[in-house]
């Protein structure tokens, strides 16, 4: 394969990975590294460098639409990002003192457990009341989302596209539902752990952020994925500086990956408005289990 054909192929593949990463709140980087190393035989350091750039690009491309459509919760993102960054710094400092195999194994077990709990808790807590949380009340973390699947509803109108129904007059009536955030302290603890894992293993922590917001804080799944997408861009930007200084970012490769990821992220941000919550949960759980198996194989190999 010629260099030009390889760049075109990488860009096309990254469109799909960017779309899926944006839709699930994992970031396209979750899929970029395995694709570049296994399918295209690139050095893992260069693949990670390009992946970090793709995470920032994908987050920047999808986040404005998520904020405009009312999916991402900016207050929750800012609050939790403090814990994530703190954990990432601690993880980076400990990276040279802990065994990678043990970390991969623990991470794989945690992800598998999170997937099972997401499935069980969603079934068990249907219609259950959300406990009050003083921290969430004080920080005004509660919000509303379009088609979030929350318990109580209200309606609004908009000229844009999104989840909802169109009247005979052509006006789109959106299903805007309020939700309450709970167990903020638990969410902050889980976000610190997610950041630490990200710093220790050099991987994105979106796979842990979404379960933390869904399980502990009771955010609707679409809000969790959109908010996670917003957060990983901030974390990725900090990491990108390090990889640029190390020289692990090849401009042509990073450009192709970023271009494909941006296009895919735009598609993913549009799909989130129309994909049913049940289907989104199934896709996320499958991806979470696949990542878990990959981590376990790395740890036990």
TrEMBL record:
Main location per the UniProt record: membrane
Protein topology in the membrane: Multi-pass membrane protein
Name under which the protein is recorded: Probable membrane transporter protein
UniProt source species: Frankia alni (strain DSM 45986 / CECT 9034 / ACN14a)
Chain residue ranges for the region called Disordered: 141-167
Protein family per UniProt: Belongs to the 4-toluene sulfonate uptake permease (TSUP) (TC 2.A.102) family.
Record keywords: Cell membrane, Membrane, Transmembrane, Transmembrane helix, Transport
Superkingdom assignment: Bacteria
Entry's Gene Ontology cellular component terms: plasma membrane
UniProt-listed PANTHER family: MEMBRANE TRANSPORTER PROTEIN YDHB-RELATED, TRANSMEMBRANE PROTEIN YFCA
Localization (cell): Cell membrane
Biased composition (Low complexity): 149-167
Pfam family, one: TauE
């Amino acid at each position: 394969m010629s260099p030009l054909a390889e760049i075109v192929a990488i860009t096309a593949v990254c469109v799909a990975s960017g779309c899926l990463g944006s839709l699930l709140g994992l970031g396209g980087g979750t899929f970029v590294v395995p694709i570049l190393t296994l399918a295209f035989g690139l050095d893992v350091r260069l693949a990670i460098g390009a992946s970090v750039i793709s995470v920032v690009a994908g987050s920047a491309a999808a986040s404005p639409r998520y904020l405009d459509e009312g999916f991402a919760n900016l207050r929750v993102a800012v609050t939790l990002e403090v814990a994530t960054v703190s954990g990432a710094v601690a993880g980076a400092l400990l990276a040279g003192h802990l065994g990678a195999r043990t970390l991969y194994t623990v991470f794989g077990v945690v992800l598998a457990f999170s997937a099972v709990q997401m499935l069980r808790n969603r079934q068990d807590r249907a219609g259950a009341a959300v406990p009050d949380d003083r921290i969430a009340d004080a920080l005004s973390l509660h919000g509303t989302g379009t088609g979030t699947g929350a318990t109580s509803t209200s309606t609004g109108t908009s000229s844009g596209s999104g989840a909802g129904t169109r009247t005979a007059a052509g006006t789109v009536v959106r299903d805007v539902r309020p939700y309450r955030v709970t167990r903020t302290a638990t969410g902050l603890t889980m976000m610190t752990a997610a950041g630490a894992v990200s710093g220790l293993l050099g991987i994105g922590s979106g796979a842990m952020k979404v379960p933390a917001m869904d399980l502990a804080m009771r955010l609707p799944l679409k809000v969790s994925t959109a908010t996670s997408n917003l957060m990983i861009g901030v974390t990725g930007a900090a990491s990108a500086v390090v990889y640029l200084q190390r020289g692990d970012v090849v401009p042509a490769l990073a450009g192709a990956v970023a271009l494909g990821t941006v296009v895919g992220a735009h598609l993913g941000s549009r799909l989130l408005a129309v994909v049913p919550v049940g289907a989104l949960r199934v896709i996320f759980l499958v991806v979470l289990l696949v990542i878990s198996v990959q981590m376990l194989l790395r740890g036990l190999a």
